[in-house]
Amino acid sequence: MEHVLPDDYKKEEQEEILRRYEHLLTVWQTRKEPQDLALVEDAFYFAANAHSKQRRRSGEPYIYHPIAVATIAAEDIGLGRTSLVCALLHDVVEDTEFTLDDIRQRFGDKVALVIDGLTKLEKVENAESLQAENFKKIISTLSYDVRVVLIKLADRLHNMRTLSSMPPHKQLKIASETSYIYAPLAYRLGLHAIKNELEDLSLMYRDPVVYDSIRKQMDGIRAEKTALLRSFLGPAQEAFKKRGVEVTSQIIERSTFSIWKRMQKKQLTFDELYGNFNVRLIVDCPLDMEKIECWKIYAILTDVYTPNAARLKDWISSPKMNGYESIHALFMSHEGNWVEVQIRSKRMNEIAEKGFTAYWQYRTDNQTESGFDEWMKRIKELLGSESDSTIDFVDTFTNDLFSDEIKVFTPQGKAIALPKHSTALDFAYSIHSEVGNHSIAAHVNNQLVQLDHKLSTGDQVEIITSEAQHPQEKWFEFLNTAFAKSKLKAGIKEYRRGFREKGEELFNDIMKKLAMEPSKANRNKVMESQRLTSAVDFFYYLSQGKITEQHIAKVLKPQSGSGSSFLKRITFGLIGNEDKPEDSVLESLGEFDFNVATCCNPIPGDEVVAFNFPGEPLQIHRSDCPKAINMMSHFGNNIVKAKWQPKSDIAFLATLRITAIDNVGLLNKMTDLLSNEMKLNLHSLQMESKQDLVEANIAIYVHSTNELNLLLEKLNKMKEVKKAVRVKLS
Q1: For the packed helices 130-140 and 626-634, what is the interaxial angle rounded to 10 degrees?
Q2: What are the φ/ψ torsions at residue 454 (nearest 5 degrees)?
Q3: Are 522 and 511 a contacting pair, CB within 8 Å?
Q4: Pairing of strands 594-596, 618-622
């Protein structure tokens, strides 16, 4: 192809395309020798010609997207020549007539391998979720080239920035995938700026009301908070200057998603949170002086302000698994405000922003393995392990490899990184499958504990085993990591195989008594009745007496009239005419049977999402429900975005948490408000007194968010009540 833009583009579009390409070259900071520039230019014109007849949904030339992805890869991630070539070409094979062989012949095997990793699967036979299959394909590339994932993150970021042109159900699907998979992936690769933007954009489409509310409140306090932090920095900078320490200071604003998450976790309003604006101090010093200089800055600050020692976090001595290093400290300002301060070196700050690529740029040959290396090892272990389904693989990946970690030690002093909330049994399986399968107890810090004991950072753990022990189903309750659960599942299966011969003999004897053939078809009928999918489990339960002759006879020789099939309609949290849940309709959908999810208890007025699975009632969730986000990331094609328009005789369950002063008559006042004034039905009430305060959890039936908000307003106006909030997620 010639290095000219085709006539499919208008003149002004050609000018804009070239302007954007020039900007890409400007932000490209790695090696730019003539041969590098020539290769990137060739890829640019190749992509521009290949996509010349394509338009994005917004109407813009499609080539804007590959250029934007390459620009993010260069400017925000710090990638180089080969990555920019791949970013420019990443959609060519998927969306144009050119093949992978065409790419290979023109740009070489390395570029073709990355492009193959970035190209979506069109169809997978018997796939539960094409979304999950495509994600697994991308993750598998981590074992040979991390650039695939880095370019995919750049691609996802630009798609999120331009998501407004997509229809609502597509917005929900893509936003949920982003928050469930891609934002945590960016975090694990140390790309904090990209992670924050992905989370914010995802929240903007999943819950626009919450997003807009937080943004407006941040805009309203920005000038005041910035002035307070500048006032805080004044005496500190004087102290640094006096001691000859050069420090660059920044005022940092928390991301919208981070603020929302803290509000949910702490059950606080925006006004009750502190730390939405923070101070970052950066020192430029040699590598071998970083720890000394950072702690020196902390020490100088303690001479000026009083620290909160309980809130000190040291991620310099023990970096996070994603390479993040920093000291986080809390100081009381002279105006009486707590101020969070982040202290780090210039190198640490670059790694915090650009993550994986910056880490490798600074890495030395004699450096010990870091969290990045350990994480990559765990990914390779996961890729090499058996999994029943791709969805299981994705859930294992997100549960184990995205969660915060703890570090514990073996009896020999070797550090082992585990996901937060891991138990002694999780630790055992992380050592080896056989250690886990034969575990009976553990010593944690020389104290004997049971297998379900939760571990904390710094624990030293020794597993006690016995050859007489075998893996048991009840252990699933003790495990937090999906990796350990998969090992336990395999161990149970292997153990139960030893009972197959005995089980087959029993099955043959029972079928002989019933004068029936011990056929696979008959066996499958019994297995289906017991909800079993494995013959190994069937013969094991038979050998253990958990499946009996009576069970088998009931299925294969049912008594006349004893069996009947019926459809049970579930109406979680519904009051009114329970036989007609269709009295509540979904706008633009007509009338449907539906189930209201008990995990998040949505009520009319909430931002909701419906899932439409064949042969099942619609499943209604809040759009910010973690379970719904998980489902949207796997089953995007089953999403139905909806708004509720309920009739007045239908009520839904909502839970309130109330903190109040423990006065005589408080309960009467609250129940009088609920029952007599608001005319609401009470589902349950739990109260616990703590010194002079009382904590109450009240489950109440309401008809809409407007009614609920009015109730909360009235509760919060009661002089005894300190705070009344809705508990959105159970």
Answers
A1: 80
A2: -80, 135
A3: yes
A4: parallel
For residues 69 and 86, what is the distance between their CA atoms, to the nearest angstrom?
10
Q: Which of 58, 48, 35 is nearest to 98 (CA)?
A: 48
Q: 156: which strand partners?
A: none
Quote the pLDDT of residue 424.
Answer: 94
Query: Mean pLDDT in each 10-residue stretch from start to end of the chain (730 residues)?
Result: 80 93 92 91 94 90 94 91 93 90 92 85 51 70 76 93 88 86 84 92 92 93 93 94 92 93 84 87 91 94 93 87 86 91 92 70 53 62 59 64 76 85 91 92 93 91 92 88 82 89 90 88 86 86 87 76 31 32 40 71 80 76 81 75 59 85 84 87 82 84 86 89 79
**CA distance linking residue 276 with residue 222, whole number of Å:** 10
Structure tokens of 711?
């109730």
> Can you list the pairs that 384-390 forms with residues at least 24 positions away whose Cβ atoms lie under 8 Å?
385/483, 385/486, 385/487, 386/486, 386/490, 387/486, 389/128, 390/127, 390/128, 390/129, 390/132, 390/133, 390/136
- pLDDT of 515: 86
Of 446, 503, 498, 453, nearest to 471 (Cα)? 498
DSSP one-letter code for 582: G
Give me the phi and psi of 129, to 5 degrees please.
-150, 115
What pLDDT does 124 receive?
A: 45
The predicted pLDDT at position 369 comes to: 52
Predicted local confidence at residue 400, as pLDDT: 56
Q: Which residues are catalytic?
A: 94-95
Structure tokens at 336: 């009486």
Query: Beta-strand (E) ranges in 532-617?
Result: 585-586, 594-596, 608-611
SS percent in the chain: helix, strand, coil, step 5: 50, 15, 30
The DSSP string of 450-512 is -TTPBP-TT-BEEEEE-TT----GGGGGG---HHHHHHHHHHHHHHHHTTHHHHHHHHHHHHH
Q: Which long-range contacts (CB under 8 A, 24 or more apart) does 34-39 make?
A: 36/80, 36/81, 39/81, 39/85, 39/107
Q: How many other CB atoms are found less than 10 A from the CB of residue 334?
A: 12
CA distance 520 to 313: 60
The predicted-structure confidence for 608-662, as pLDDT tens digits, reads as follows: 888 877 767 778 888 778 888 878 777 777 777 556 555 555 677 888 888 888 8
The Cα 490–Cα 482 span in angstroms is 12
User: From CA 586, how far away is CA 114, in angstroms rounded?
Assistant: 44
The residue written with tokens 């430029």 in the block is 284
Residue 535: both structure tokens together: 């013959």
Segment 230-275, tens digit of pLDDT? 999 999 999 999 999 999 999 999 999 999 988 888 888 888 887 8
Could you give the angle at the alpha carbon of 643 between the alpha carbons of 641 and 649, nearest 5°?
A: 140
Find residue 173's DSSP bridge partners.
none
The strand pairing partners of 685, in sequence order, are 698
From residue 52, alpha-carbon distances to 48, 84, 85, 97, 105 in Å are 6, 19, 18, 12, 21
DSSP string, 632-679: HHH-GGGEEEE-EE--TT-BEEEEEEEEEE--TTHHHHHHIIIIIIS-
- Kindly write down the DSSP assignment for every residue of 514-551, as one continuous string: TT----HHHHHHHHHHTT---HHHHHHHHHTTSS-HHH
Conformational region of residue 362, where left means phi above 0, alpha means psi within -120 to 50, and beta covers everything else: alpha
Rounded to an integer, what is the distance from CA 587 to the centroid of its chain? 30
Distances 662 to 25, 542, 669, 715, 719 between C-alpha atoms, Å: 66, 57, 12, 15, 11
Per DSSP, 416 falls in state E
Given CA atoms 99, 103, 108, 114 in this order, what sign does their dihedral have?
A: negative
Pairwise CA distance, residues 100 & 115, whole Å:
8
